[in-house]
Amino acid sequence: MEILTDKYQVVPLDAGADAVAVIKEAEAALEEMTGEKITLIAYEETKKEYRLR
Known about the structure:
32% of the residues lie in helices and 11% in strands. It is of the alpha+beta class and 53 residues long. The two termini are 14 Å apart. The relative contact order is 0.32.
């Protein structure tokens, strides 16, 4: 999948951050529900305007 926007960027989370633990717990729960490996990615708004490429 390709994301075609400059409106969001990946959040540089510290490996020990509480947010990382929450994301890992959510990934594990989704994997249990779906039977598939799930990876969640944290994004933040960049305040840039959306544009198509």
